[in-house]
Every structure is written in C-alpha cells, then in structure tokens.
Specification:
single chain, alpha/beta, 4-stranded parallel beta sheet, globular
C-alpha cells in the first residue's frame, strides 16, 4: 500500500470510528435521558395519582407522536395510547400495534408525561412543566425524524405558536401548510366521533394522505 492510500485508509478509518462513536454515544445518552424522565417528580405535588411518566423514543425513531397526556388507563398499564383513543390513532395512521410500539419507527412523546387527573369535564390539561423541561433534550437526540404528528390542541398550540389557525378544525383543515415537518390531527378520542361526522373531509381527504405519508416513511 503506497503512502497516499495509507493516508486515505486512516482518514476513512477515523471517520468510521467517529461515526460509530456518535451512534453509541447518542444511544447511551437517550437511554439515560429516558430513565431520567421516567423517574421525574417535578410536578408530583400537583398529581393526585402520583407521577408515572410515560414516554417512548429511540435515536432512530422516524415518526414522533406528540399527544396531550396519558389517561387513567395508560396510567395503570404504563403503555402509551393503550386505550380506545390509541386504537383510533393507529387506524388513522394505518399501522399495526407492533409498528406503533416499535421505537425504531415511532417515538411517543406527550405534552405532559403523567396522568394529570380528572377535571369537571374530562381529564385535566397536561402539566406545563414537562414540554419545556424534557422536549428539547429529546429533540437533540432524535436525528432521524421524518414526520411529527401534533395530536390535539395542546400539542398544536405549543408547537405552532403564531401559525396555528383560530380553531383546531381550521388548523387541521389547512394541514398542508404545516408539512413536511408537522402533521396536525384532532384528538382521536371516541368523543370526537361527532366532530368527524360533521367534518367528513377529514376522513375523505386527510386520513388517506396521512396513511400514504406514513407508509412511505416506514417502508
């Protein structure tokens, strides 16, 4: 091997080693970060049922689902979107439970990581401490994301400051304005079936487009 080839070999070797080191480093950082989040007690004084942070992510996640906060069922099971809302969301996305819970494909990062408890007309809003405390740290390690689903008004208000429409319906109706980074969706709660019945364009136009984009990313 001549001198030039030897130099090139060592340059490539250093590049590869640096690349491998970055991957391993990010993986370890993500593992540590997720452990920190799952042990978070930042707002425990305000949680009637105590803290149980729910989050799933990988450095290789391609799609990120940002919802509002776990409900009572998820608080018990520890599995995100493990309820009727989750069933509806997976149907909207056109993916199986296996793919949905594969963190190499989908990261699940709520606005509030813990169940906030019941209010007068449903669950309380997600705690405001979580997103500014943990989301930026997660984004630093989510480097392969192709699409972010903003599910519900809390996620949209936070991530679409200044560009969201007057109502959630208007925002979702103009979903193409937020692509290719964000895909805006209503909350998939069965209580929103009436909303879907009133807004048939969502089922006819939006959902087929969403499924096509997700299949394109995952396949």
């Amino acid at each position: 091997m001549d001198t030039q080839n030897t130099e090139n070999y060592y340059i490539y070797e250093r590049i590869i080693l640096r690349f491998v080191y970055t991957i391993v480093n990010d993986y370890n950082f993500m593992k540590q970060l997720l452990n920190c989040i799952k042990n978070c007690t930042e707002c425990s004084l305000f949680l009637e049922h105590g803290p149980r942070p729910i989050v799933r992510a990988s450095t290789t996640s391609k799609i990120v689902v940002i919802g509002q906060a776990p409900g009572s069922i998820v608080h018990k099971t520890g599995i995100p979107w493990d309820d009727k809302s989750g069933e509806n969301l997976r149907k909207w996305m056109g993916i199986s439970s296996e793919d949905f819970y594969d963190t190499e494909k989908v990261a699940i990062i709520p606005m509030g990581f813990c169940y906030p408890g019941k209010g007068k007309t449903g669950d309380l809003p997600p705690r405001k401490e979580c997103a500014p405390l943990w989301h930026p740290q997660l984004w630093n390690l989510l480097k392969e994301v192709k699409l972010i689903l903003l599910v519900g008004k809390y996620a949209q208000d936070y991530y679409l400051k200044g560009v969201a429409k007057r109502t959630l319906t208007e925002t979702v109706q103009n979903y193409t304005e937020y692509l290719p980074k964000y895909y805006v969706l209503p909350h998939p709660s069965p209580r929103n079936n009436i909303w879907q019945a009133k807004n048939r364009w969502f089922v006819i136009d939006v959902l087929p487009d969403l499924k096509d984009r997700i299949q394109s990313i995952l396949n």
